[in-house]
Amino acid sequence: MARVVGIDHLVIRVGNFERSKAFYDRLFTFLGFEILGEYGDAIGWTNGKTRFWIGEADEEGKKHPHRIGNIGFHHYAFELRSRKDVDDLEAFLKRENVPIVDPAAEYYDDYYAVFFLDPDGLKLEGMKYGERGSAGGAG
After folding, report:
1. Higher pLDDT, 65 or 19
2. Distances from the Cα of 134 to the Cαs of 18, 114, 128, 137, in angstroms?
3. Parallel, antiparallel, or unpaired for β 9-14 and 123-129?
4. The pLDDT of residue 136 is above 50
5. What is the pTM for the complete model shown?
6. Which long-range contacts (CB under 8 A, 24 or more apart) does 122-125 make?
7. pLDDT tens-digit readout, 104-126
8. d(CA 114, CA 49)
């Protein structure tokens, strides 16, 4: 029987490639990613474990902007090392004037996160789960 060992990559389509490329490049540089490859109409970043690619939507796709609540993508969560990293990400987002839809807070027991939007309104999350419950956790 086949077994999944991880998620290799995520690919999203964007409304304005250059605008989104600039946004994700700043975000991923802050998060410690490097460019994996660029192929004219697509670019990907990696941190050695996670790969994230963007490419421009076609004209038909651009007629239907993303809306949270539609069938399909709801949000993508980046697991961070610590609650402090979540706070640092929130500070970065504020400096970059990125729309924050839910500020850094504990949303579930020992689940600390910040939720924000990319230029097309796709919801992204930086989160840390289990820090208070782990040995030596900062809480």
Report:
1. 19
2. 41, 21, 12, 5
3. unpaired
4. no
5. 0.90
6. 122/12, 122/66, 122/73, 122/75, 122/76, 123/68, 123/74, 123/75, 123/76, 124/75, 124/76, 124/77, 124/78, 125/75, 125/76, 125/77, 125/78
7. 999 999 999 999 999 999 999 99
8. 22
Tokens 């991880």: give the residue.
6
Tell me the CA distances in angstroms from 45 to 66, 92, 123, 124, one per residue in order. Answer: 22, 19, 18, 16
Burial 75-112 (b: 16+ CB within 10 A, else e): eeebebeebebbbbbbebbeeeebeeeeebeeeeeeeb
| Residue 38: pLDDT over 90 | yes
Task: Specify the residue for token string 């460019």.
Answer: 35
